[in-house]
Amino acid sequence: MKKVVLMKRIQKIILIIYGILVITVCTYVPWMRLIKGYFLSLGYSPTWSPIGGSIVDIRRVILELIAITVLCCISFLLTLDSKFGD
Hints:
Blueprint: H1 9-27, E1 28-35, E2 38-46, E3 55-56, H2 58-78
Antiparallel strand pairs: 1-2, 1-3
Helix pairs in contact: 1-2
């Protein structure tokens, strides 16, 4: 009998790294403050410890999540076996 392997070890590692990165991005978020009609970036801080008088820069969080997802998907797809031409 031929053993069926659903995922290679490198693919599992990529998925674990992806999960860790998503948790990190959602835990340590960028903060911003509106001053005289302009948004001022205040840096990163945990969600449970906001920087005084600031709000989460949700646009940057979404952009980071999209970038992480695209990079991990590309990495995952590059590790797939090609069945074409066999």
